Amino acid sequence: MATVFEWSGKTGKGLVESGELTANSKDEVIAQLRRKNITATLVKPKEKTSALGKLSFGGGVSDKDIVVFTRQFATMIDAGLPLVQALDILSTQVENKTMAKALTAIKNDVESGSTYADALRKHPKVFTDLYANMVAAGESGGILDTILNRLANYIEKSMKLKKKVKGAMIYPIVVSTIAVGVIAVIMVFVVPTFAKMFATLGGSLPAPTQLVMSISNFVAGIGGLIVLILLIAAGVAFVQTRKTEKGRALTDAVFLKLPIFGILLRKVAVAKFTRTLGTLVSSGVPILDGLEITAKTAGNKVIEYAVMEIRQAVSEGKTIAEPLMKSGVFPPMVNHMISVGESTGALDAMLSKIADFYDDEVDNAVANLTSMMEPMLMVFLGGTVGFIVIAMYLPIFKLITLVK
Description:
75% of the residues lie in helices and 6% in strands. The protein contains 17 helices and three strands. Strand 1 (3-11) and strand 2 form a beta hairpin.
């Protein structure tokens, strides 16, 4: 039976990395790491937590917490405060308990002789690989304060990008849920009342009324329960599928091919890829390490696989642009601009320009999506409710005509 293992180890360049892998045994994890040129120093099964244990009640560390800490830390370093003293001050000031605990442990590690970057790598749930590698580059280059400010800017822009996507997704979901809820209430509680009244009148009912009453009987009866169970089962199956490597790759590929949302997600992926890689390259992180970190933080398996293939090609001596074009994942404009950036020696600047362009593209896509979805949802809700109301009042109009 496959088990989730937590691991940490050193790369061929001496960098400390950690993460999680699913495998059948500890030896299999070590073998997988060895193929990635990582020497394992710790491999252990991940501790299982109960459902109660998963409830953090605000104990997690948000992107905003990281940004505030990073900016304050950069200011202190720039002012000439020693690293340990700055960490000690901030560990007592931060409100988040998880963050405070991590900073105290990092301060103790730095006091014991560890580099700041190595101390950060021991807390992967708080500080990402991207953060730790950029700090390592800043330490080695003597520009830690500059790198920290660059990190804060990167995280802030990533937060804005996430907010835009969530805003685009939440609006249609909320309106659709309300619409379905209103229609369900009408079908389950209102229509049956009219049905009882029509049953006492006798005679034949108009076709629209018969249709609405048939749907109401289905929804209010065993049919509605079956549909609800199927929807819940589909939701559970989707969540479980997303937990597997192949399942996530399949669903991510489907998401990118969706008619409207797929275009938005592809633009978000391009913006995130170029922003992350550009920030890493400009901070002095080696290109191969930068591509690996960018792949891990892509958030989409299709993009991740494409970037890892690009990394493999670059390790064989090729440029980024050539395998990027062959992947077929990124737009031609991105491929050509990266090619120009490589040939002119200004890859980091070119990546930042592409990221800024696609940030604006995401803004426009979200605005267009919202403006398009709003009237469509309103027409759907108004049309459906209007049809039900007219269908219910048709027999009453017929009765009044007969009485006259």
